[in-house]
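User: quick one, sequence for these tokens?
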């Protein structure tokens, strides 16, 4: 079962009031090496895949980065991490746009307390800002999958946290790549950014981006969407989402079951819109 969570008043109360995940997340699959099996254990392997496409304005990019950095050092995040079996998690953070444009900002690091959290947050904020063309969610997921095999730490769960403000419009369709990730025991959660009205000038923005993420992007046991529809709630949403992921929980408030049949928004809508506008 997958879930949707809309940000509004009382967001942090919802984030801190846990409900049980629908099924246990699968452990590392047989494809992992013996070295991986003998690696240091952590509660969670978390890949943060962050959209930096040109459809994101400079203010959004800045707030997004600040949101991740501030979330990692927040008392809610650190307290939740301390409550885990090992009291530590492994994280990596990369920025993405087109299918061939992904850049790792933070290689795999263990966060086990305020000092290591501060170090990761500072590195996120110090990295030079950048933007790229196109939006390839499938490229971001494809890039993220082998990162788990390269991780020197072994987590009880493996999660890709992917943000974005538009549908996939570059290279492979997203649904097929999602299924490949799920087959590896990876859970994908979504952070659709919906703080601007869809473009009326022939762009590739869509309405109901949260539906698209729910039906076409996320997946795996306990997967969920936290949608951002208010610019002022941007940082709160990121913090709530990361806290939920570390806790291994889904949001308790305003849950909406995702349709299990035909997607409410076509999963190839971004590719079609790009083809109609640019002919390629």
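Assistant:
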């Amino acid at each position: 079962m997958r879930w949707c969570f809309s940000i509004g008043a009382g967001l942090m109360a919802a984030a801190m009031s846990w409900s049980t995940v629908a099924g246990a997340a699968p452990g590392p699959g047989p494809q992992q090496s013996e070295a991986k099996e003998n690696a240091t254990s952590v509660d969670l392997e978390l890949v943060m895949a962050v959209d930096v496409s040109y459809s994101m304005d400079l203010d959004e990019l800045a707030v997004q980065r600040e949101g991740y950095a501030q979330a990692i050092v927040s008392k809610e995040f650190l307290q939740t991490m301390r409550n885990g079996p090992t009291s530590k998690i492994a994280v990596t953070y990369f920025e993405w746009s087109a299918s061939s444009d992904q850049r790792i900002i933070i290689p795999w690091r263990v966060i086990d307390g305020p000092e290591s959290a501060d170090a990761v947050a500072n590195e996120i904020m110090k990295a030079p800002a950048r933007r790229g063309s196109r939006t390839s969610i499938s490229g971001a997921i494809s890039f993220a999958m082998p990162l788990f095999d390269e991780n020197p730490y072994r987590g009880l769960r493996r999660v890709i946290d992917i943000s974005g403000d538009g549908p996939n419009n570059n290279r492979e369709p997203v649904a097929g790549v999602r299924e490949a990730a799920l087959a590896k025991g990876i859970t994908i959660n979504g952070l659709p950014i919906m703080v601007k009205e869809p473009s009326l000038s022939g762009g590739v923005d869509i309405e109901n981006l949260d539906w698209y993420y729910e039906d076409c992007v996320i997946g795996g046991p306990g997967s969920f969407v936290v949608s951002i529809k208010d610019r002022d709630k941007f940082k709160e949403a990121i913090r709530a989402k990361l806290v939920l992921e570390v806790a291994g929980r889904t949001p308790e408030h305003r849950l909406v079951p995702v349709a299990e049949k035909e997607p409410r928004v076509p999963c190839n809508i971004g590719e079609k819109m790009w083809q109609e506008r640019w002919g390629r």
